[in-house]
Amino acid sequence: MPEGHAIHRLAAQFAQVMSGEVVAASSPQGRFTAGAAVLNGQRLTDVQAYGKHLFLGFAPRQVDTAQTTPDSKSPPTWLHIHLGIYGSWRFYGDSEFTSRHVGTALNLPESTQQTAEIVEIPVHTHHDDSAFAPHEHFADRWFWTPAPFTAPPPYGTVRLRLVTAHGAADLSGPNTCELLDVEGVAAVFARLGPDPLRPDCDFSEFVKRCATRQKGIGEALMDQSVIAGVGNIYRAEVLYAARLNPFTPAREVTSRKLRRIWDWLKEYLPLGVESGRITTASPDDYAVFVERELAAGREPQAIDSRYYVYQRQDRPCLRCSATVKLRIAGGRKLYWCPRCQR
């Protein structure tokens, strides 16, 4: 399941390429036909991300065709999306659409052929030009097609298609796809814990919600009603950074240690939004680790350069060389270093 940084990045992408645009909405799959009919012909006026939830706000066009702004008297209709495990967005567009993409520049194929095939563009690549694993750019599946733009036939089971003059976005496999009014959006916000990526969320609310949880802090961080947007990777890495045993009851964790968690997330989540990729291991720590492993006759693995503990079970800790452990907690894999996180 995508973590909060990916949804905030996705929100930035929508704001960049579709904000202010009138959309033609449809449901090729047929499971969101009524909702698509409501959105059809409306203008995207607002984009919000809260934890793992995406909200796209739409408003009708004014009757006066000379006006290009939405009708400010009409309350927005909100499209609420939670991708879950299998959901994804796929973007199509011409050069004008893709040139507005936020983040790493797109390498558009050089072609003047109006009949050129659509080409998939990996937005983020490693230094050796190989694309990231699919789950790391689930919302960055970009396809280029020559102008004038014509949306290609839907690929797979598309729940919702949004088309503008220069591009399209296809939604497939979401856990939640629904229309909400303002009160409905507020209700979703109310049941979520604070999101460190949002300026309107604060540390004190995180402390208050942790104080009511007997479950381990490792499980509490995955509870979206405690803190929104944290997933399995950030959970493992922030607990390592805070030197905190993941099985310590959340209500017993001191405010000082909770502050370590909050401040680390406030630093690293924006880096994930910017790059579309989670990397937490310090290059200096990794360099020392490589020297130590080679001296011991062992070869470092690719995962060692990215994380301190996540998916590194049975591997040496980057800092202390203790064996990283794995346990199932709350139905999810939890990784930790038993020496660094006592």
TrEMBL record:
Protein name stated in the entry: DNA-(apurinic or apyrimidinic site) lyase
Superkingdom per UniProt: Bacteria
Recorded catalytic activity of this chain's protein: 2'-deoxyribonucleotide-(2'-deoxyribose 5'-phosphate)-2'-deoxyribonucleotide-DNA = a 3'-end 2'-deoxyribonucleotide-(2,3-dehydro-2,3-deoxyribose 5'-phosphate)-DNA + a 5'-end 5'-phospho-2'-deoxyribonucleoside-DNA + H(+)
Organism: Mobiluncus curtisii (strain ATCC 43063 / DSM 2711 / V125) (Falcivibrio vaginalis)
Similarity remark: Belongs to the FPG family.
Domain named Formamidopyrimidine-DNA glycosylase catalytic: residues: 2-115
Stretches assigned to the FPG-type domain: 308-342
SUPFAM superfamilies, per database record: Glucocorticoid receptor-like (DNA-binding domain) (SSF57716), N-terminal domain of MutM-like DNA repair proteins (SSF81624), S13-like H2TH domain (SSF46946)
UniProt-listed InterPro entries: FPG_cat, FPG_N, H2TH_FPG, Ribosomal_uS13-like_H2TH, Znf_DNA_glyclase/AP_lyase, Znf_FPG/IleRS
GO BP annotation list: base-excision repair; response to oxidative stress
GO molecular-function term, one example from the UniProt record: class I DNA-(apurinic or apyrimidinic site) endonuclease activity
